[in-house]
Specification:
alpha/beta; Rossmann fold; six-stranded parallel sheet; four-stranded mixed sheet; 5 helices
């Protein structure tokens, strides 16, 4: 049933499932709006105006005036990290993050708050569509991480704890335009 969803329905389903997984979401017209939107989110969360991201040229070329940026793998002491998702999965509200120097996997799991950029055009209907999309894109990453909401665990006393094994918060910037 998910395979038959048109792009607006895929986006709507993705957003609903993402929010149900305790992530938050902002819509951006294009990547150039990211620095201002990220600065606003950092302030809203009482986080310092600093972000760590990989060597992704899309991020490195932006004007980060007012935000201290650092480039490299994620570090546990980072209050905020930024990644780029290759795809989103409408069926579950899941982000698909590919490993590599431009998008180090440690950015996904280390740091207090994880910010992720996703193009609306890259939202797939279901998980079954992912592998074909990766082949079409010529992607051959060492690691594919599927992230649905912030880190959570109920290991101890069956009480849900956010941030147990990774970021306590996940925020997605959904791009309408290229990015």
């Amino acid at each position: 049933a998910f395979a038959r969803l048109d792009p607006p329905a895929r986006q709507s389903r993705f957003e609903a499932r993402l929010l149900a997984a305790d992530a938050t979401l902002s819509h951006l017209a294009g990547l150039e709006a990211l620095p201002a939107a990220l600065a606003a989110e950092l302030r809203r969360r009482n986080l310092p105006p600093a972000i760590r991201h990989g060597s992704d040229p899309r991020f490195c070329s932006l004007d980060w005036t007012g935000i201290e940026t650092s480039v490299g793998p994620g570090r546990i002491e980072e209050p905020a990290t930024l990644s780029h998702a290759a795809f989103g999965i409408a069926e579950t509200g899941t982000l698909v993050l590919l490993s590599g120097p431009e998008n180090p996997v440690t950015l996904t799991f280390l740091g207090e708050t994880h910010f992720v950029v996703l193009r609306a055009a890259d939202i797939l209907a279901g998980l079954d569509d992912l592998w074909a999309a990766l082949r079409r894109a010529g992607a051959d990453p060492r690691t594919v991480n599927l992230v649905t909401g912030p880190s959570r665990s109920a290991d101890i006393g069956q009480t849900l704890q956010l941030g147990a094994h990774g970021p306590v918060a996940l925020h997605v910037f959904l791009l309408a335009g290229p990015g």
